[in-house]
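<goal> How does this chain fold?
<body> The protein record starts here
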Amino acid sequence: MWGITPDTWQTEVSDTYSKKLTRKSKSGGRRISIRSGHGVGKTTELAWIIIHHLCTRFPQKTVCTAATGDQLFDALAVEVKAWILKLKPDIANLFEVKNESIDLKSAPDESFVSFRVSRPDKPEALAGVHSENVLLVCDEASGIPDVIFESAAGSMSGHNATTILAGNPVRSTGLFADTQETLADMWDTWTVSCLDCPRVSDDYVEDMKRRYGERSNQYRVRVLGLPPLADEDTVIARELMETALLRDVHPSMVRPIWGLDVARKGNDASALAKRKGNVLTEPVKDWYGKDTMGTVAAVKLEWDSTTPADRPEDICVDAIGLGAGVADRLRELGLPVRAVNVSEVPAMRDRYHNLRAELWFKMREWFALRNCSLAGDLPTGKQVIGVRYGTQKQSGKLVIEPKDDTRSREKHSPDRADALMLTFASEAITALGGAGSSVSWSQPLRRLIRSIV
């Protein structure tokens, strides 16, 4: 129709969307994820698919979205409208092009393209889109909050519903990142590098290389189409987590430390991490739906099934809220429990807002030594890199975001990650002048600082 020859990757994506499936498809063409460098023709490919769907399906509804109006209307919508004008007049005249939609003139309620900005405060904008053929196109998908995808999920339940996510992978967490990694077995994925694209000038690539360096996040995202090694506000870098997942090392010759994060809400889990020096000895265990005594019973069972030589020196329990009762009962049962209040003042009070922030950065130091192992525990690794930090405006102290913020963005609470963080409580407190192992574990773990537990 247009007299052009697409790039190889564009042909592959188009064939997968149209169910030609010339390459092995993991989703039957229903779920497509494209991460790319800058200027490889990604927006053009999306425009071609949108117009193809409009011209060849009936009835059909296509919804296009992006995190900002500039990206949606000044980039994607403009591209779609430009290619419609290049259609043969007899076909182009079938459609009415509006500011926020393109309608089939003869049946505007049954066949249209709608452009809708993804706003976290109005996730319902993508809900309730039902038709025999539905297409959802998400441009610069890294910036779209996961709550938007949740809202749109109901619209994508039909047999002829297709979702396409595309963009520069500027974040290493969220649904777009997951489609390329933990969910990659269910998505048809592409990574399009500027180095493999003839439409990107060598001068652009060289400029990015000289300006930022080949190992920089800017070069990875804008040229290679790969996610950043670490988001700017992420406590633990993705690269550190990934290498810890694969690393095979011998554990340090020390007694294990367990960390127990007790669930506070119905959708949260109680999680138990077991660390022996530089090694997470097994994947973190988590339990949903257990009350206080149920959590106590689960931990006691873990203790009883562990050989005496491998039992922990300390079990550090977050003693805020329900955790206090769990800690008390486990102590009554004779387990070496330390009640840790992570909201208390840290030892390095000039740097950290509270003990939770101090322990999270203590855990970052553990990863940064590059001799630790997560024992292949990917779910915990994903939670570890999903937690962000900031600085207080007045004091400049480092603060970890509240769990509710992480849960809202990542769609899960970082319970497993916090359990691993708690294993550093005993070490951090002892190293900074607090109670050592010679002190009876029947007492709460205290620093030599007033009001710290």
Summary: The chain has two domains: 8-224, 238-431. The radius of gyration is 26 Å. The CA atoms of residues 262 and 270 lie 4 Å apart.
